[in-house]
Design a protein that fits this description.
The chain is mainly α. Helix content is about 85%, strand content about 0%.
Length: about 300
């Protein structure tokens, strides 16, 4: 960009110098040199406009590149920020899940151990067992020891059956409690996992919205810059078109002899024509530049 600016400055200086030379050539009546200078001015003007157009296009490309670099930088910062935020969330969520799992496991183990460590007390004797014990004592009091022994065996078996049934009932109740705690434990873990998933989805949705906003802002800036460039290029083309029209209609300034009388002007034209015919050089012997000028004049 700096070299292009220097080149434009050099062209401007050259054009200013040629403009001054053109005026001087016309003033001195050096019209062939003036025509040559005018053509040089046209060429330099084309070069200048071409350079300005290139500079305008290069500025557009540079602006687009700057917008892209700024967008990439913002996206890098955005990703770094969100990666850190998501890592922190996952770490905290994992710790919370592990804590819930440990609490649930400890509660379940405690429930299981309570059932295995405690021995059930004897249940309250049934009416049948009480009647058997009374008969046993009555027969023993009557010294009917055989009868008392027989009733005792029946009472002992009944007591054993009732104890086993009572123990089985306690075990069933304990297993039901264990299963209930297991369901509650599983639900707690599932709830914390579902809660974590919901928070994770919310975070990713927020991240997606933020990324979409950055992307939309970048696209808007690119469109604005492109529209500005197209307007500038359009104005440049209009100015170039007007400049081309002016160059096409440009004529050499009139010499001082235009203020002479008609007689003097006629005399001067005649002398000039005679002198030109006398000094005219065959086309094959003219320098290339004069050949070109003469062919264009014709």
């Amino acid at each position: 960009m700096a070299s292009t600016t220097r080149s434009n400055d050099d062209l401007s200086n050259s054009i200013n110098q040629l403009d001054a030379k053109l005026s001087k050539d016309v003033e001195d009546g050096k019209y062939l040199e003036a025509e040559h200078t005018r053509r040089q001015l046209v060429v330099l003007g084309l070069k200048q406009r071409s350079s300005e157009r290139s500079q305008l296009i290069e500025k557009h490309r540079q602006d687009q590149a700057n917008l892209k670099a700024e967008y990439d930088s913002k996206m890098d910062n955005f990703k770094s920020k969100w990666d850190k935020k998501l890592r922190s969330f996952e770490t905290e969520a994992e710790q919370k899940i592990e804590e819930v799992k440990k609490q649930a496991t400890a509660e379940l183990e405690s429930t299981k151990s309570k059932g295995s460590q405690t021995s059930p007390r004897k249940p309250k004797p049934s009416q049948k067992l009480q009647n058997l014990r009374l008969r046993e004592k009555h027969l023993a009091a009557m010294q009917d020891f055989y009868g008392a022994q027989s009733i005792k065996l029946q009472a002992d078996q009944t007591e054993k059956d009732e104890y086993n049934a009572y123990k089985k009932r306690l075990e069933d109740q304990h297993q039901q409690k264990v299963r209930r705690v297991e369901r509650e434990t599983t639900k707690k873990i599932q709830d914390i996992l579902a809660e974590t998933d919901a928070k994770r989805q919310a975070l990713y949705s927020e991240r997606g919205l933020d990324a979409a906003l950055i992307e939309q802002r970048y696209q808007d800036l690119v469109s604005e810059e492109k529209a500005s460039f197209e307007r500038a290029l359009h104005l440049f083309d209009l100015a170039e078109h007007r400049s081309g029209d002016m160059n096409a209609s440009r004529t050499l300034p009139q010499s001082k002899t235009s203020n002479t009388s008609p007689k003097q002007s006629t005399s001067y034209t005649s002398k000039t024509q005679t002198k030109h015919e006398t000094n005219q050089t065959p086309a094959s012997h003219r320098p290339p530049l004069l050949q070109s000028i003469a062919s264009e004049s014709m």
